[in-house]
């Protein structure tokens, strides 16, 4: 196999490597993972806010329960004094009755507040459970996407490694000056600095080669550049 044939094979390998690298950069999984990560962050923040509100409500309930208990204890104490055996003056009895009534009213208000707070806590518990469910769902999708993405990336990297090994093997079979020229011209010709000639036409620019170049192409060891596009020409059937 001549050097130009090897170089043409190297060009095909490089094109596959370029395509794999481009595929890796533009994998949909990266954008999908980014969106899921943002959704997971939003869901986690919503869950934290819901839990904070629930904890604040539960704290308020504990405070109301404490206040209600104090009011109930004092009310019992006042009633015991009011209806006890000890002698009380009319003024003292009137004062105790007013205090008992005030404590009763206070108990009713605190019971209503406590009931409303407990209802609020119940609703917040539902909100927390929904937020937790949403977060767990998004997080699970995130983990699955990460797993499938890693598998896809690993597959592409493994394929790239395979072609990189082929590239090294082929590169060693090409003279350094020719290889350097090929590498230098790759960007200029969008990865295709070599073009085959078929039926006297350069497949790189689709222009017919001159009679003089056709004669030179009969010598496999002769490096010929297309007079129109400048690509290195390779006879289509090169042995």
Account of the protein in words:
This protein is of the alpha+beta class. It folds into two domains: 3-171, Helix Hairpins (Orthogonal Bundle); 187-235, no CATH class. It is built from five helices and five strands; from the N terminus they run H-H-H-H-E-E-E-H-E-E. The chain has helices at residues 3-25, 28-82, 90-171, 176-185, 211-216; strands at 194-198, 201-202, 207-208, 224-225, 232-235. Strands 3-2-1-5-4 form a five-stranded mixed beta sheet. Strand 2 and strand 3 form a beta hairpin. Helix 1 (3-25) packs antiparallel against helix 3 (90-171) and helix 2 (28-82) packs antiparallel against helix 3 (90-171). The model has no long low-confidence stretch (mean pLDDT 90).
What brief labels describe this structure?
single chain, 239 residues, alpha+beta, Helix Hairpins, 2 domains, five-stranded mixed beta sheet, 74% helix, rod-shaped
């Amino acid at each position: 196999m001549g050097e130009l044939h090897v170089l043409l094979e190297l060009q095909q390998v490089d094109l596959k490597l370029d395509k794999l690298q481009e595929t890796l950069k533009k994998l949909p999984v990266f954008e999908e993972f980014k969106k899921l990560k943002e959704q997971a962050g939003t869901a986690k923040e919503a869950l934290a806010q819901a839990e904070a509100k629930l904890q604040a409500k539960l704290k308020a309930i504990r405070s109301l329960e404490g206040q209600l208990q104090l009011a109930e204890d004092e009310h019992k104490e006042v009633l015991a004094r009011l209806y006890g055996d000890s002698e009380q003056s009319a003024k003292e009895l009137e004062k105790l009755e007013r205090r008992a009534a005030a404590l009763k009213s206070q108990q009713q208000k605190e019971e209503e507040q406590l009931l409303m707070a407990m209802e609020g806590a119940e609703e917040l518990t539902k909100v927390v459970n929904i937020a937790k469910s949403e977060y767990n769902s998004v997080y699970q999708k995130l983990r699955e996407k990460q797993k499938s993405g890693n598998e896809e990336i690993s597959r592409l990297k493994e394929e790239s490694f395979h072609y990189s090994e082929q590239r090294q093997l082929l590169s060693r079979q090409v003279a350094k000056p020719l290889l350097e020229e090929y590498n230098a011209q790759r960007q200029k010709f969008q990865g295709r600095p070599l073009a085959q000639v078929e039926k006297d036409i350069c497949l790189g620019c689709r222009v017919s080669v001159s009679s003089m170049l056709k004669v030179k192409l009969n010598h496999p060891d002769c490096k010929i550049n297309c007079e129109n596009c400048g690509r290195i020409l390779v006879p289509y059937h090169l042995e």
